[in-house]
Write a structure and sequence with these properties.
The structure is a single chain. By secondary structure, the protein is mainly alpha-helical. The protein has one domain: 2-Layer Sandwich (Nucleotidyltransferase, domain 5). Helices cover 46% and strands 5% of the residues. It is built from 5 helices and 2 strands; from the N terminus they run αβαβααα. It has helices spanning 20-34, 65-73, 89-101, 108-118, 132-155, and strands at 42-45, 76-79. The protein has a two-stranded parallel sheet with strand order 1-2. Strand 1 (42-45), helix 2 (65-73) and strand 2 form a beta-alpha-beta unit. It is globular. The termini are far apart.
Length: 158
């Protein structure tokens, strides 16, 4: 689960094969971990079977656990265009980086810490050697401050 703006990986799981259960688990982990700051508003995926039911009725509707999970959480679900890898290019680039460097780390958590907090990301502010975590939390400051101010106004006796 990659944040489009900051490139931070919000949640990840190493699996032998892709499954709808794992896709939901990763999205739910990210949702639960960050909902106190800001809820996930939109998710974009390819047409993989773990995300999307290929058999649909005449209205384009189908029952699929991933799609139903998104609806239940109020997450807008967007599909990439067929044969258009640019739509999902950021996660594709992350997968390339994962495959290239994963063996250098003893665990997925160690790799994610390096990717999110230590390694500067070339598509961010390279002059400042900005990491995905730095960009993520900088972009969330208005939301965090707003939530704090809302809490403070409720707590202060009048």
């Amino acid at each position: 689960m990659l944040d489009d703006h900051s490139r931070i990986v919000l949640a990840a799981k190493e699996c032998e094969q892709r499954s709808v259960g794992d896709a939901i688990a990763v999205l739910n982990e990210a949702y639960e971990r960050y909902k106190h700051i800001r809820r996930i508003g939109e998710v974009i995926t390819d047409h993989g079977a773990e995300f999307y039911a290929s058999k649909r009725d005449k209205k384009g509707k189908a029952k699929h656990r991933f799609e139903e999970f998104c609806r239940a959480k109020g997450i807008k679900y967007v599909l990439c265009k067929y044969n258009h890898p640019q739509s999902n290019g950021k996660i594709e680039k992350w997968i390339h980086t994962y495959k290239r460097f994963r063996e250098e780390f003893s665990s997925l958590e160690e790799f994610l810490n390096w990717y999110n907090h230590i390694r500067p990301h070339m598509s961010l502010d390279w002059r400042k050697l900005e990491t995905p975590a730095e960009r993520f939390y900088a972009s969330l400051q208005p939301f965090i401050l707003g939530k704090f101010m809302s809490w403070a106004e409720k707590e202060v006796p009048t």
